[in-house]
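User: Predict the complex.
Assistant: Input components as received:
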Amino acid sequence: MSFPTHRPRRLRRSEAIRCLVRETRPSTAGLVYPMFVCPGKGVRVDVSSMPGIAQQSVDKLVEEAREAADLGIPAVILFGLPEHKDEKGSEGYIASGVVQRAVEAIRKARPELLVVTDVCLCEYTDHGHCGVIKNEEVLNDPTVELLAEMALSHARAGAQIVAPSDMMDGRVAAIRKKLDVAGFADVAILSYAAKYCSGFYGPFREAAQSAPQFGDRRSYQMDPANAREALKEVALDLEEGADMIMVKPALPYLDIIHRVREAFDVPVAAYNVSGEYAMVKAAAQNGWIDEKRVVLEIFTSIQRAGASIVLTYHAKDLARWLKAC
Ligand code: PBG
């Protein structure tokens, strides 16, 4: 039974019929907009490899957060650039830190906007690694202690969701315990569970000034060749108390998003990272691709693979375009 009985083109004849049978319906509901907060006042410094994205002081950041909320974006995720970096990333877990102040300011300005914080040391350490270093080695357990402190300081500032991105073992359990003991049982954990050691983070490291000063992140982030290991990482984080899990980057790992979606009944997030954004922007600026069409296609494909939450630097454009449809 095939042609002429079956004519799949019947269901593609008009936008009305295509819309009726559409399997994936992209919406703004799962968008998370990443933002970079720096010290000072009135500061907005463009990130050259990420057109449209900037490092901003709290006052400017709040203005943009309001704009995101007005566009219908439900959540932002914050990354901090401290005043001073040191060996232990001390400014990452003080109450007066940039992220902590930004969380407070955004919560006050737009209480309905969800504020997610990235929990990691690499933006705050002078060596640029995601943990404490001894003899050029990233130590797991002492790092986990500091990450838990950081998550708690974010919760105290008002973050509703904390997102550990360091890839240390056992950090979700440590964060959960720290939050619960301090009375923040309602703060959710979105763990970067399957975070790969990727070349696509390049532009982010310019934005967050977080490039490692020696070596690379292969001793803690995942090997791009491994898929089964991602399922193990996700299972462990869920066991430790993660509420939502993330796969990162998105496009080179759509198969991982799909496998995780099939295997676990929890909300799955995907991070469409800085390098993925930069490639689209560069090609669009050269007139080589139709930016709107490509961005919508990418967003749809990430959702089709199984992610209901998408962290993307395209969030504001997507919100505008999706509204117009
Ligand atoms: C911190 C962190 C990174 C990203 C998110 N959190 C960088 C890294 O691991 O080097 C990357 C996000 C992006 O590229 O957009 N560990």
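The chain is about 40% helix and 20% strand.
Let me know if you want any component modeled separately.
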